[in-house]
Design brief:
Number of strands: 8
Number of helices: 23
CATH class of the largest domain: Mainly Alpha
CATH topology of the largest domain: Serine Threonine Protein Phosphatase 5, Tetratricopeptide repeat
Oligomer: single chain
CATH architecture of the largest domain: Alpha Horseshoe
Largest sheet: 5 strands, antiparallel
Number of domains: 4
Radius of gyration: 29 Å
Strand order of the largest sheet: 1-5-2-3-4
Distance between the termini: 60 Å
Length: 519
């Protein structure tokens, strides 16, 4: 097998060139194989969380990690073939997204290996699968933040994307982006041209750009020797090779004033919004008026306003414009009450000596938590455990991610049930929703511990708060159905025991629940 790097763009190249063979990915100790035949995905092995079928009751058996077997199981269980194959396509896209975001992911290609007999190609294009996976992994705000330091760089289609007619699976926005960038385009300008002044296009635009950059269809223009000479004059701590401006072939680009302005631009990029706007927060708990932000922007922006550099050389004007742009972004961000409040909270936490979670990391943690819940619902507890663990790493204060992670470890028998039960009981819920979730998880552990009656009491407590809770309803219903059997075995000398009386009361409880639900 031949090592393939970078894994995702090379996989896409093999698919688009109609290759036949096996591509093996190694990701965090796992090995996943993807069989290709003339560019089509024929088989996936080693990925038990591949097929996720919402709304079907057979998902527990569709997690073997063998795509052909899992699709067959789903179809045999009544799932339409198209829906089963689409689910496999989405699952492959989610996995490839993890490959794109993990620097430790590696891949190796084994040329000419034929797919197993009876295999058939997935009808969903790989690009479409990737687009779905990337959109689930990051919000448009997260994508924009991820590429923010590169918005001043020039992008061009890669050699792989030169055949612009081969865009099967690309959205119209992504295909248009490749066409517009064919002659070279600054990333920020390309985004603005695609948005065209219509804010509704912003989401699709950034997702399209993210797909093109992650897959290598769109690449950044290489840095020239002239730019490298300029950067050598910067202090090493300020150098960011990913944010070079378009000063190539400019004989005056190495002017000290230009160098200082570029250094200031990099410094602003690394600063927090209020610090960049030169706003001193005395007491963050008292809040901050938006008028203060606007006034601070007017003062700070005077140093870099384009009117101040009229008549100056183009290199200096461009560098100053970059600084002005950053300050404008900070001002727009801090004008939103929600973001301003979060920034003040971060300052307050830092002054108290506590770690503060970035908003970007908080959003990522929420996305991973939702992904873990999807795995959890489909009984892929190992994948759910990993997703919850990553969520906790990004946001240590995420209580429910920590609770779910502990629960999954107990279900997988990595920690004792009793220890997990005690850990969950120590978590204090902040609202009714969290309280219900903790009751559900601890009730599950009580059943594993053999304390079924205690578990049923907690399921009843859940139904008192939320009569529509499906899992609690199912558990109580099963308990009710087994009531006659328990009653007959618990009678002694024709007299019902305490358990039988509890069963009768339980039946009345469930009838009241049905009445409340109108069933």
């Amino acid at each position: 097998m031949v090592p393939v790097s970078p894994p995702l763009p090379e996989f896409l190249r093999l698919s688009r060139e109609g290759a036949t063979g096996e591509l093996w990915f190694r990701l965090r100790g796992r090995q996943i194989g993807v069989s290709l035949h003339q560019g089509g995905v024929m088989q996936v092995v080693g990925l038990p969380e591949l097929i996720m079928l919402e709304g079907h009751r057979l998902t527990a058996s569709v997690n073997t990690g063998d795509m052909l077997s899992d699709i067959g199981t789903a179809v045999a269980g009544g799932v339409p073939p198209d829906e089963a194959m689409d689910a496999a396509g989405w699952g492959l896209g989610r996995f490839l997204t993890r490959v794109a975001h993990d620097d430790d992911a590696t891949a190796a290609w084994d040329e000419g290996v034929e797919p197993p007999k009876g295999a058939f190609p997935l009808p969903m294009p790989v690009l479409k699968s990737l687009a779905k996976g990337l959109s689930e992994a990051r919000t448009p705000d997260m994508v924009q933040q991820h590429w923010r330091n590169k918005t001043v760089l020039v992008v061009r289609p890669s050699d792989m994307a030169k055949d612009l007619g081969n865009t099967r699976g690309l959205s119209p926005v992504a295909a248009r982006a490749l066409n517009l960038a064919s002659g070279g385009e600054v990333l920020a300008d390309l985004v603005e041209r695609l948005i065209g002044g219509n804010p509704r296009r912003r989401t699709k635009t950034w997702w399209a750009i993210d797909l093109l950059l992650e897959t290598g269809l769109l690449v950044f223009q290489e840095v020239s020797a002239a730019q490298v000479e300029i950067e050598d004059e910067f202090d090493e701590s300020d150098v960011d090779l990913e944010t070079k401006s378009d000063t190539a072939d400019d004989p005056l680009a190495a002017d000290p004033a230009v160098v200082r302005m570029h250094r200031q631009y990099r410094k602003l990029l690394k600063m927090r919004p209020l610090a960049a706007l030169e706003i001193k927060v005395v007491n963050p708990e008292e809040g901050l008026k938006v008028d203060v932000v606007r006034e601070a922007f007017r003062r700070a922006a005077k140093k870099y306003h384009p009117d101040k550099f009229t008549g100056e050389h183009a290199s200096l004007r461009r560098a100053a414009a970059l600084c002005f742009q950053v300050l404008g972004e900070y001002k727009s961000l801090m004008e939103e009450p929600r973001h301003l409040a979060m920034e003040l909270e971060r300052i307050a936490q830092e002054r108290k000596g506590r770690a503060h979670v970035k908003e970007d990391d908080r959003v990522k943690a929420k996305v991973l938590y939702n992904k873990g819940n999807s795995f959890f619902r489909n009984r892929a507890y190992g994948a759910a455990r990993d997703a919850f663990a990553e969520s906790v790493i990004l946001d240590p204060d995420f209580k429910m991610a920590r609770a779910r992670h502990t629960h999954c470890r107990a279900v997988l028998k990595e920690i004792p049930y009793e220890k997990a039960y005690m850990a969950l009981n120590e978590i204090e819920a902040d609202n009714v929703g969290e309280k219900i979730e903790l009751l559900f998880l601890t009730a599950w552990l009580l059943k594993l511990l053999g304390r079924e009656q205690d578990a049923i009491k907690q399921y009843k407590a859940i139904l008192e708060r939320n009569p529509e809770h499906r899992e609690a309803l199912r558990e109580v219903r099963l308990w009710e159905k087994r009531a006659p059997e328990r009653s007959s075995t618990s009678r002694r000398g024709g007299k019902a025991t305490k358990d039988a009386k509890e069963d009768t009361a339980s039946s009345g409880f469930f009838r009241s629940i049905r009445k409340r639900r109108g069933s």
